Amino acid sequence: MTDSIKKNHPDNYFSLLGLPVSFSIDKETLTTNYHDIQKSIHPDKFANATDRERCLSVQKAAQINDALQTLKNPLQRSIYLLSRYGIELGENNNSIDPAFLMEQMELRENLSQVNDKDDPLGELDTILDDVKSRINKIISGLENLFHELLSADEQDDELLKKTSAQVLKMQFLNRLQEECLDKEEDLADQL
Amino acid sequence: MALLQISEPGQTTAPHQHKLAIGIDLGTTNSLVASLKSGMAETIADEDGHHLLPSVVQFLGKNNSLYQTDVGHQAQKNASRDPLNTISSVKRYMGRGLEDIKKHSIYNFVTEEDSVVPRIRTIAGDVSAVEVSAEILKKLKQRAVDALGGDLTGALITVPAYFDDAQRQATKDAAKLAGLKVLRLINEPTAAAVAYGLDSGSEGIHVIYDLGGGTFDISILKLTKGVFEVLATAGDSALGGDDLDHAITDWILAEAQINDPDAVLLRTILDAARQAKETLSEQDSASLAVELPDGSIWENKLSLQQFEKLIKPLIRKTLVPCRRTLRDANIETDDIQDVVMVGGSTRVPLVRQMVGEFFATEPLVNIDPDKVVAIGAARQADVLVGNKSDEEMLLLDVTPLSLGLETMGGLAEKVIHRNTTIPVARAQDFTTFKDGQTAMAIHVVQGERELISDCRSLARFELRGIPPMVAGAARIRVTFQIDADGLLSVSAREESSGVESRIQVKPSYGLSDGEIESMLKDSFSYAQDDIDARKLREEQVEAGRVVEALQAALVEDGEALLSADERSTIRQAIDELIEISKGSEQRAIKLKIESVDKISANFAQRRMDASINKALAGKKVNKLNQ
What we know:
CATH superfamily of the largest domain in chain B: ATPase, nucleotide binding domain
Number of helices of chain A: 8
Oligomer: heterodimer
CATH architecture of the largest domain in chain B: 2-Layer Sandwich
Distance between the termini of chain A: 56 Å
Helix content of chain B: 25-40%
Helix content of chain A: over 70%
Radius of gyration of chain A: 20 Å
Low-confidence stretches of chain A: 1-10
CATH topology of the largest domain in chain B: Nucleotidyltransferase, domain 5
CATH class of the largest domain in chain B: Alpha Beta
CATH architecture of the largest domain in chain A: Up-down Bundle
Shape of chain A: flat
Shape of chain B: globular
Structural class of chain B: alpha+beta
């Protein structure tokens, strides 16, 4: 399969939601298009239809929901874009630089000690803000990387590798963010 | 020039034929039925003018195999005289196993050998929660048919947003037993939002705090241009006004030094507790008087202050899910436009006060909190049957609980996360563990915890017929789908060989298809002829529905999407179906429906794709026109 076919396949999530294939997306257009499509194919519109149509509408609505979830979230969106180049995340863990892994260990260490602090929730907020700003930095870097990648005529393997490494970092940070939020919930419930 | 009239896709072409649809709020304490009357949704009263039907069923006996029951006010009056045969708060038992429901229950629960569903032993026999609920639904259905005077096209039934799959399935089963065609199950807070949202027409973020008789739900919705999108939902399907009653009951038992009350006394005290709670919504103290078994009367006063001290921990418990929804919806209290109070228990002043403080806004109580859910349900039911509605409205709801699978070591692996918009479908690949393995067992759970034992077991099923291969070579793709009712279905396929695996799902807490079939048979206890006549009638109705839907589709898209040949093939099939359904061969009608379905499969697919294209393209046209 050549590059251009992958990019323009009619069944892809971007064309499904009427958007150009790109990492940067217009959130408002995404939401409006999603709503307009659901207004025409949601199972509620087929409550009186034949079984076949009701069944199709459930499947289609589920697919559209999946497309929205994937495109709305920067991590999911970049994993999806990479998958179109045949890349599955996690295969090339060794491409992560050691300095990043050290940072991760430190952040996790801090998180595990939050409970012992005088103001655990405040401490957690500091860590969360730090993680969020790291994620945002990666996102803005990815905008350029994906733009270059998608506009290239030939597949640039070096660039692809570089992009995957950034996405992998984002995945690490996202997981950490989730753990922070779980911890926040636990702490709040104890109040 | 005359303007061409073009109807909405998915709607029928007979605009003047108004269809009768009802919305039912099947509550723990009270139930209601509502329908649209000249454009306004209203709850329907019984002949005595009561809108609320107490969700109480008294079993009197059995005639042939038909239950003799009293439902509603009469049953409620008899409850303390005949407590063991008079079932109230049955909603708490829906989709639940024995260990969940024993607490605070006065009934004699029994389990049968070949069923996972507990039964309540009554004078009329052992009855399941589904059958008890069906009696309530039958009563509401009759009320609606009497008031509206015609055949019902369908009913929309509300369920707590936090109901899990087993509880939803049980509700749908009850409707089936009551002979209702369920258009959709929708979440109670979403229905309330529809009732409020359309009246005020306000765009923005709304919080629905719904504390009913036995369940608590919190939902955060966003309203944009006719689309209600649930951002997050949470709750507790075993927390409600009943628990406030129980808190007072426990206090009375302690004060009166009663250690081991029998069913009659407990029922009496529970009734006194409920009355005291209602009094304390308006007054500073409530007098209590309970007749004890020795004939003496125990009297006391419960002050508002004491009452609030008793119930405060329970209300605080509702704030934990509130906090979680805010987080899941990724919003702050500042973003919230208003907080809507739903459910009779929100009449308790302390509830309003604590919720108001938590969300930093004065809660809304414009619509009667008892009726708001039924009113919203009736509106949505009317939209679903395709009656013309001025407001093009769409509800996008979410699944309240994560769906997971048991993995090695008793851990749950999440396949679908909570608060994912439904319908949703996710595929998961599995492989074999041993050489030549031809079957595998899969355990589906619902819940947020990591350990399987902390989650709720939904179903177990076995995949059989996997072709024998070396370990790890088979690729079994299992697809989990949650439909718009929030109900799960599972399908599986061995990918490398294309073998469709057989799945036998054993619900952990549900009635099997066989059990429902036999209950249905019992409810039409007479002769085999009657059952056959009913089946034929149902098949004819189904045929009529298929014909109507296809004809509507042909009018809308036949020219655009089909060749002349294809059109005539479908038309011919429709004509044949019409002809056959006039006869009395149920089986022949069924077969013909199936064949029409096959013939029109491509057309359905093309219509769906065309709808999407139209949705995206139409928008650009609109922009030009305006």
